[in-house]
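New to this. Please check this record:
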Amino acid sequence: MRVLLVNKFYYRRGGDCIYMMELERLLKSRGHDVAVFAMQYSQNEPSEWNKYWPSNMSAIKAFSRPFGDSEVRRKFTALLDDFKPDVVHLNNIHTQLSPVIAEIAHDRGIRVVWTLHDSKLVCPCYTCMRDGKWCTECFTDKKAVIRHRCMPGSVPGAIVGYLEAKKWNKERIQKSCDLFLSPSQFMADTSIQGGYDAEKFKVLCNFIDVKKVENPSFNKSEYFVYLGRLTQVKGIETLCRVAAELPYKLIVIGGGDMESDLRKMYDGKSIEFKGQKNWDEIRPILESARFMVIPSEWSENNPLSVIESQSLGTPVLGARIGGIPELIEEGVSGMTFESGNAEDLKTKIIDMFSAKFDYQDISKDALSKYSSEKYIEKLMDCYKSM
């Protein structure tokens, strides 16, 4: 099968990028022909397909690219002409590429599947969160993004977000997409609540390459770990504030706009900041941790860090928000706490250190659920069913 994968970026920027790049590798390992369409970006990894990629965003393009500009149309069409895919598999495409590519592919009779990594289909600012709380105003009134200035760039950004949502409305997007793949039931339910047709959705949890987590040791040390971006919505500030009051060591892996301030405030107070790391550096830290904590204060979809952690036999303490609770069996593969509640987080950290977990069973169960081999079989069924 000839599969064209599409995503804004082509480097390991976040879960969406990691998913697509791992899927590219997985499809190729099964003998499928794979091409990639992304945006030109300085941190992109090399690709034989980058001659087809549109230029990076600029201040001017920020007002044209979200609506499907001529460069995206021309270069995507050229790639379709040359590669002739059977399936176009979309990931994160809004703003930098835009859903115009779904229309172009669909109009040619090409099957289009879209993996949803966030709630952009129903929320102009991607998160369905406002002032730290769940918000669904835009499900029925897109002008809410202007009233509340939810987008970066205040009023101008909010206006662009509103116009983008109006152009790429659910009727138009659904017409051009044969199937939406939702990594979590939460994301599927959110999209359906926002007006999308339930018949077009299939829940298919993210996967992991078994080779990257094979033969874990299950020898745990006396620390816990955070793995992710250092941004406000990830709950990292709340976690550091709580961890600084406890006698346990926290290792923080990741970078982001809060890294410098957090280092100044908390480095040395039983918190060690490791910065951005690759998987070979992350694995031994995650593997030996008593547990990993994911303290998100926005609605995560299906965080890969939870799957990676559990596959190594490391239990997870997760915020009860978004799709996180779907991945944690309370008291068996971890625990949950109320998102944003510092006192509950503190209590559950203490509980996690005193709890007894069967690390080997956690790993075995995770690998049976999330292995790439099972995923590719289900995905091919999806491709063929469209």
Remarks:
- The first helix runs from residue 15 to 29.
- The chain has a mean pLDDT of 94.
- The longest strand covers residues 2-6.
- The radius of gyration is 21 Å.
